Amino acid sequence: MTTETAEATTVGNWVANNLTTSTSGRTGKVFNPATGEVTSLVALSSEDEARAVVDTAHEAFKTWRTASLATRTRVLFKFRELLDERKGELAEIVTAEHGKVLSDALAEVVRGLEVVEFACGAAHLLKGGHSENVSTSVDVYSVRQPIGVSAIISPFNFPTMVPMWFFPLAIAAGNTVVLKPSEKNPSASLFLAKLWEEAGLPAGVFNVLQGDKTAVDVLLTHPKVNAVSFVGSTPIAQYVYSTGTAHGKRVQALGGAKNHMVVLPDADLDLAADAAVNAGYGAAGERCMAISVVVAVGSIADELTAKISERAQGIVTGDGSDKTVDMGPLVTAEHRDKVRSYVDAGVAEGADLVLDGRGIEPRGNENGFFLGPTLFDQVKTEHSIYRNEIFGPVLSVVRVESYDEALELVNDNEFANGAVIYTNDGGAARQFQTDVDAGMVGINVPIPVPVAYYSFGGWKQSLFGDSHAHGADGIHFFTRGKVITSRWLDPSHGGINLGFPGND
Fold first, then answer.
1. Domain co-membership, 184 together with 288
2. With 309 labelled, which of 80, 83, 355, 429 sits at a CA distance of 20 to 30 A?
3. Within-domain flag for 207
4. What pLDDT is attached to residue 230?
């Protein structure tokens, strides 16, 4: 059941440092997931409106690309100060439209802030190289130059952190940005846009395009868009990558995940159970780095499952704005129902339902999109709850007999975003980090999201493209290399010579 507010405002676009009203006539509903209420409408931009936003960014690129590194850095530092001062306000916006608890929303903002801080020092990473006198009177040097208009298509689960994986580095490198946020929670993007304006960023450098697939397709095909960054499900990541690259764009498309946590018999089971609960049920499981499969090795499975269940039963589910609540709702009723259908399927397929979250009594409004912590044991690889990315508070325990069997299980999965091992054996941990097929590995760390100066990204069906997010990879993605070979007025090298130039 959902309810609508009497007068819902419409969330529009941000173009050239101005809020604009869409004329498409199409809107989508934005909910407070904790109450089921429609709190606003979001404009779903037309193709013409999307093209106009790209054109604005393209015009701004002509001047922003020539802005000095000192100018760009000053703006970034000011943006960083403003974001740090007002991070609490931004967290409240995230909670109101996503549903995650306030502490989690604040942590999301702070992790995005880390990338902004990294971008403040990007001038060091934008340096080229210089070799003098490689041939007689010839110098060769390299530079990194901005790529152009950069589109960012971000997901609903991290409406601030994920865009900040990309746009601070894009802007630091001299590019302009068109951010297309999720239509489920669009308001955080406008808050960020206003901070950029206050920080002194010139009009047109950072733009927000609200919309759905219509807007996305314009970004993927518009000839003035040069780079596309995407985070979302694997099928959409494949579509974004294939469409964008077919139209000549550089694309990094981060897809789905099915992150495994291997627990060896020598592990501290209390710590492992804490980690499984925290990483499995945080943000109601709506994280691409959530642990969704616990691989119990050997005889520990019964004890480990019992410890996880005991802890999960103590989780308080309710309105994320209530500081006594541990886990909030799912983002929409449709998504809640989809996750619930996986629970139904798990039961029908024969998995052991240890903890059923379908009958949860939340703390707060019963019309919210709630599903409580759910735990399955005796899960098999053929079960749908194992094969698919559920993106909800559903944790599966798979039992294996050995480390080798656990490793094979992880590496056979089509997703390879993150993988975690819990053990007190340093040799086993080191072997795991070498052998496991995953882009990010945790050793006694349940959510191994790297700090900003290292890159974020998976392997296999979790990433399309060869560049991860932030870190040095981010700088590389948002710039192009150019090499200059130079000789100044050396008459000894005059005359006609049709041979290929040598170095002497």
1. no
2. 429
3. yes
4. 98
Predicted confidence at residue 307, as pLDDT, reads 98
Q: Please indicate whether residue 288 is annotated as part of the active site.
A: yes
- Listed residue (252, 244, 207, 205) closest to 222, CA to CA: 244
What is the DSSP-derived secondary structure letter of residue 428?
Answer: H
| pTM, to two decimals | 0.95
Q: How many CA atoms lie within 13 A of 203 on its CB side?
A: 7
Asked if residue 276 and residue 226 are part of one domain, the reply reads no
**For 201-230, how does the pLDDT look when each residue is reduced to its tens digit (9 = 90+)?**
999 999 999 999 999 999 999 999 999 999
Are the C-beta atoms of residues 299 and 265 closer than 8 Å to each other?
Answer: yes
Q: How far is CA 111 from CA 31, 159, 480, in A?
A: 25, 12, 27
Range of the domain at 431: 259-443
10 Å CB burial of residue 333 (0-12, 13-18, 19+) is middle
Q: Which residue has the tokens 């039963």?
A: 313
pLDDT of the residue at 490: 75
Of 288, 315, 339, 360, the active-site residue reads 288
In a domain, 490, yes or no: no
Residue given tokens 């604005």 in the structure block: 56
The per-residue pLDDT for range 165-174, each reduced to its tens digit, is 999 999 999 9
Which residues have CB under 8 Å from 412's CB, separation 6+?
381
Distance CA 393, CA 401 (A): 26
* Paired residues of 482 in beta bridges: 143
> Is 468:455 a contact under the CB 8 Å cutoff?
yes
Q: Residue 313 in 3-state DSSP?
A: coil
Q: DSSP string spanning 21-33?
A: ---S--EEEEEET
Q: How many domains is the chain built from?
A: 2
Can you give the CATH number for the domain in which 322 is found? 3.40.309.10
CA distances from 232 to 74, 75, 78 (A): 32, 30, 30
Low-confidence ranges of the chain (pLDDT < 70): 1-7
Query: In this structure, is residue 498 part of a structural domain?
Result: no
- 189 and 301 within one domain: no
Q: Find, among 111, 59, 122, 45, the residue nearest to 84 by Cα.
A: 111
In angstroms, the Cα distances linking 80 to 164, 180, 205 are 11, 21, 17
